[in-house]
């Protein structure tokens, strides 16, 4: 991916800059998404998936990345949680 590239989450993208289809979109929540420039070792994956540590991706870090919600996205609040 180029330094100024785009990652599309929650939508099956058939081609770059393709028109999005609501029937192929995610209905749910995404949290703690991180992307690394390398394959993680087994012990790193076990620690992250076992909640022993929080991974911080070097390509995309959930805590410091800027995310943009698409115009056709809806936000739903359920109790103390907010779903985009």
From TrEMBL:
Keywords from the UniProt entry: Calcium, Disulfide bond, Glycoprotein, Metal-binding
GO molecular function: metal ion binding
Residues of the Pentraxin (PTX) domain: 1-82
Protein name: Pentraxin (PTX) domain-containing protein
InterPro entries reported for this sequence: ConA-like_dom_sf, Neuronal_Pentraxin_Related, PTX_dom
Cofactor: Ca(2+)
């Amino acid at each position: 991916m180029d330094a100024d590239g785009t990652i599309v989450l929650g939508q099956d993208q058939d081609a770059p800059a393709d028109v999005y289809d609501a029937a192929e979109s995610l209905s749910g929540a995404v949290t703690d998404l991180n992307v690394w420039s390398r394959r993680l070792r087994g012990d790193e994956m076990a620690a992250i998936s076992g909640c022993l540590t929080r991974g911080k991706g070097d390509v995309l870090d959930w805590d410091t990345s800027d995310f943009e919600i698409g115009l056709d996205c809806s936000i739903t609040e359920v109790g103390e949680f907010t779903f985009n």
